[in-house]
Amino acid sequence: MRRAEIVAAARLWLGTPYHHQASLCGVGCDCLGLVRGVWRELCGAEPEAPPPYSQSWAESLGQETLALAAARHLRPLAVEHARPGDALLFRWREHLPAKHCAILSAPGSLIHAHDGAAVAEVAFTPWWRRHLSHAFSFPGVTD
Question: Considering the entire predicted model, what is its pTM?
Answer without folding.
Answer: 0.93
